[in-house]
Amino acid sequence: MSALAQGTFRSLNNFNYRIWAGGALVSNVGTWMQRTAQDWLVLTQLTHKNATAVGIVMALQFGPHLLLLPVTGFAADHLDRRKLLIATQAAMGALALGLGILTVSGLVQLWQVYLFAFLLGCVTAFDSPARQTFVSELVAETELSNAVALNSASFNAARMIGPAVAGLLIAGVGSGWVFLINAASFAAVIGALGMLRADQLHLRSRAPHTRGSLLQGFRYVWRRPDIKAVLLMLFLVGTFGLNFPIFISTMSVTVFHAGADRYGLLTAIMAIGSVAGALLSARRAQPRIAILLAGAAVFGFGCALAALMPSYWLFGLVLILIGISAQTFNTTANSMVQLSTEPAMRGRVMAILLALALGGTAVGAPVVGWVADAFGPRWALGVGAAAGFAAAIVGIHYLARHRHLRVRVDAGRLRFSIDDCDPMNVLHRPGYAVSEQKIQ
To answer: CB-side exposure of 410: number of CA atoms within 13 Å?
Structure first.
């Protein structure tokens, strides 16, 4: 068997996954270009360095994940995910085209950016759970964790390229052309979806069409202490920690007085860490609760350290650490929840996960933006640090209560041990083998 099939990139041995990953990479580069240009447009052209306005844009863009939760999980579990993704990707391309035309023509206003952000949020609320769970139809169950991690690596590889290119384009031709390029990039992923071999898809059983299906999803999660702990950790980090557009833009503009090109470079620098975190996750055979806990704690430490950095380049260096920890945390959480959830419930559970992780931004982003405006961006990073530490505490509480966490000193070293599974036996599912007994 080839190294490709056995190693970090083993999912790329699958034709359908290769086609999907190629199209998604092109589209993701465009998406990161637009995100960078949109934040710069709001912060420097439509307002006078108003971080609260950037927070409102983020709230409008991610809030629909919460508002539309009753139908987005249902759609991901009951509709043809491939056709749903074609529709959502086409709609996202049309929105990028509309915003690009307004900006290039010089007619764009702040309220229009708010409106487009909200409409984009409505579309992505349907797109995200379908896209996350569609991966399970591209590869076998045994390769799902690897495929999820490679998806994250692709997304963050685009994060290295997109913001840097966007910064140069903004400085050269303006934000509007960035939006138009992003609109064109959606053709790649739509084309990839059309090229997939339908007979090689790993179609899972669909959930029966019954009333109250979303309520069933909440009941399922409520009976699972492991999933509840992961979701609460994601909510804390997603709400108050993953506000990088605010952190990086305000530090860049307000503290280091940098231009659009250096702002884009900072976002690309952090993506180096994100790609590294995703590739490290792809190498692991199974996601582990210990890795999730470590990711949250290191993320908190990284944000605290970044808040203290005195120079642009030292700040950028710490962003690599933040990128590694944030991506390790997110990928591990995603894989743990997908692999331990019944296939028929996966769409609804992932919709709940994304609603908490992304929809929480609707609450946290304006708060973090206000903190940046009122007290400075360094204090806003302090909020992110607190979120990471709080998530780590939630993980420790879960391990102590349900996995009988024990701490001892052995040969002068501090060692931790946990039970193979929790007392409710909820982790014994096909494809999800929990093997760690010691955390050293």
So the answer is: 9
